[in-house]
Amino acid sequence: MIPSPRNTATERGENKGTGRGRRMKRGTQKEGEKNAMSGQTVTIPDDRAFASFKAECLCEEGWSINHNKGGITVFTQGLEEGKSIHKIKCRMVCKDVSAETMYDVLHDIEYRRKWDTNVIETFDIGKLTVNADVGYYSWKCPSPLRNRDVITLRSWLPMGKDYIIMNYSVKHPKYPSKKDKVRAVSIQTGYVIQSQGPANSCTLTYMAQVDPRGSLPKWVVNKSSHFLAPRAMKKINKACLKYTEWKQRHNPGFKPWLYPEQTTLPSIPLSELSIQRAESLENIDESSLAETQEREDSD
């Protein structure tokens, strides 16, 4: 899964002039605010959380390389006994894409609808702070698996010349799981974008710890790491190369991830959210369908 980073900001006029590279003002929501209905705690990541995520993205200890070709490396960790959490990490060197352009592409929801052929539907639900929001994303899965969707709390932070975008799953009462899709769970997913010399180049690291739900056989997981993940990274790189020209023709000054006063998203309180636990969702058994498809592909 390549999740859709969504744009957001604070109320119109607040923090006006916040731009790329400048430290964003922290939101006013209290971290750890309790959800009165569920008792679950939803928090907005602080600096330590961003630093920890970046360190884990860059660390290779405990990871196995499953793919290393064409400037793209895919790392995986084995499934723990009795658990269905899939851990994958992709790293791509982009020689003709700046970190700033990569950051814009990953934020721009309108552009994602153009280049992301896997997206079914994506939209913002509301903003929490100047650098945190909540949104919905659904995507196509390879046949015969059912399509997935997810609701995430997403946050981002420029760190010097680097950028971090990360998310985790939450529940929102107005957006329950849908009958025609399997509600996946993002334990922790996101991107680290690192500037590289020369100036017009960067390294993108994508890391996902996801419970896709459903009883997926091993071959599906292997296909994801060997084929689907590298292809998704290549799509992002290709989208970056075309972004500047596209943006010049589509509201070029509109970048609310850089200029918070541009946002029109409604504010939502943390009290409306609760942690999305995988065990609270129906576990769809797709193993028999997938095994049938594997036999047909091998014939």
UniProtKB/TrEMBL annotation:
GO terms for molecular function: lipid binding. It is found in: Cell projection, Cilium, Flagellum; Cytoplasm; Membrane. One of its GO terms (cellular component) is motile cilium. InterPro entries: STARD10_START, START-like_dom_sf, START_lipid-bd_dom, START_lipid_transfer. Residues 60-245 form the START domain. One of its GO terms (biological process) is lipid transport. Residues 1-41, 279-299 are annotated as: Disordered. Keywords: Acetylation, Cell projection, Cilium, Cytoplasm, Flagellum, Lipid transport, Lipid-binding, Membrane, Phosphoprotein, Transport. This is START domain-containing protein 10.
